[in-house]
Amino acid sequence: MTTQDNLAGVEATAVSPRLLRGNFRLNWRLRPLPDLALTFLLVFGVLATCQALVYFGIVSRFVIPLPTSIVPALGELIGGGGLGEHILTTVSEAATGLAIAVVIGLSVGTLIAEFRVAERILYPYLIALQTMPKIALAPVLLVWFGFGLGSKIAVAGVISLFPVLVNTIAGLKSCDPGRLDVLRALGASRWDCFRLVKLPNALPFIFSGLSSAVMFALTGALVGEFVGASSGLGYLIVQANNSMDIPQVFAILLILVVVGMAAFGGMQRARRKFLYWSPNQD
Questions:
Q1: Rounded distance between C-alpha atoms, residue 195 and residue 183, angstroms
Q2: Are the C-beta atoms of 227 and 152 separated by less than 8 Å?
Q3: What is the pLDDT of residues 167-213, one digit of tens each?
Q4: What is the DSSP string of 184-213?
Q5: CA-closest candidate to residue 249, choices 63, 103, 49
Q6: Distance (Å, whole) CA 214 – CA 230
Q7: Structure pTM?
Q8: What distance in Å separates the CA atoms of residue 127 and residue 119, rounded to the nearest whole number?
Q9: Can you give the pLDDT at residue 66?
Q10: Three-state DSSP class for residue 231
């Protein structure tokens, strides 16, 4: 290699950082907006549209309130006191119902998946209950458990039971038979096959069911409060609706959105913690 070639290589090396910086600035300008910014723009556009429709009388304020009136209504709820107690009531009802649904769903799902006798006996009744709208049971559960927390917990548990149950059965039954055959050939017991292969295989299914069940439990608690209650966010919605205080209704719905997002985010965090070994996890 000649001296001229070496000088050309040095010049190319000296120029390349400037080219890289120029390309970085160009790519940064061409980069699309982050998804979060686009989401905020969409929310702002929807709120602005609703504000204009209600302000100019195109849509009645009894149908959709002015978005600017929701924040003062939320401030009144917070300043009036007692909001934290109502939130705690609804969350405790949903959490207790979800816990009961998880215990029953995992237990019954395991019995159905592992024992043919249990499947033949229980599965027809479960299908019959699944086809029936569970919300229709709310008045009956109210009669059985009274107007206290028991009826709300029962509704939350019944509504959130089936996602856990169905996903548990699907996860345990979808295990690779070849892996089970290898374990049995090595002398593994039925319990060893369950804890080493079937349960790890079912965990992604179970957490998918839990992600849905946590939202169903919150819905069940609200339905129970709609039917009859003296506290809770559902009770506040009924009271605000009876007085035609639509901004307050939407303010309570905004609180429910925050509570639901927190519950779903907690479940997703637990999923990532327990399923760190799964290739489908982030």
A1: 12
A2: no
A3: 999 999 888 888 888 878 888 888 888 888 888 888 889 998 999 99
A4: HHTT--HHHHIIIIIHHHHHHHHHHHHHHH
A5: 63
A6: 23
A7: 0.77
A8: 11
A9: 82
A10: coil
Structure tokens at 273: 């913690």
Instruction: Give me 193's structure tokens.
Output: 């096959």
Which own/partner contact pairs does 269-276 have at CB distance under 8 Å and 24+ positions apart?
270/207, 271/207, 271/210, 271/211, 274/203, 274/207, 275/203, 275/204, 275/207
Coil, strand or helix at 81: coil
Quote the tokens at residue 280.
């489908």
Per the structure block, which two tokens stand in for 165? Answer: 């149950």
Kindly state the DSSP code that residue 65 receives in the 8-state scheme.
-
Kindly report the number of other CB atoms within 10 A of residue 142's CB atom.
Answer: 20
Structural domains of the chain, with CATH: 3-55 (no CATH), 72-274 (1.10.3720.10)
Here the tokens at position 274 are 């327990």
Query: Which token pair is 252?
Result: 């309570």
Measuring CA to CA, how many Å separate 61 from each of 47, 154, 234, 245?
14, 36, 22, 10
